[in-house]
Amino acid sequence: EGEEVCLGYGCHDDDVLLRCYGFVPELNPHRRCALPFPLDSLPAEQREWASKNGLGQGHHLTAEGPSWELMGAARLGAA
């Protein structure tokens, strides 16, 4: 009795914390911004390759930079 209780919410971005737990911390090391890349704008062959290789989802930016999936999809779009 009288001891502090600490809860761990896991490694979640602000969107998940707000939707699931009702709050957003001021400093969140897992903060990221989703940036959906429109794969439908790619030619069919590139779109198929992107989907098979996991580049169809996970497009986001963090303080460290863009996700691997976003960089890969953007490179396909520029090719």
- Radius of gyration, whole Å: 18 Å
Overall form: elongated
Distance between the termini: 63 Å
Question: Counting H and I runs of at least 4 residues, what is the number of helices?
Answer: 3
Tell me what you see in this structure.
35% of the residues lie in helices and 10% in strands. The termini are far apart. Strands 1-2-3 form a 3-stranded antiparallel β-sheet. It is built from 3 helices and 3 strands; from the N terminus they run αβαββα.
Key phrases:
79 residues
Question: What layout of secondary structure does this protein have?
Answer:
Blueprint: H1 14-21, E1 32-34, H2 44-52, E2 60-62, E3 65-66, H3 68-78
Antiparallel strand pairs: 1-2, 2-3
In summary, what is this structure?
This protein has 3 helices and 3 strands.
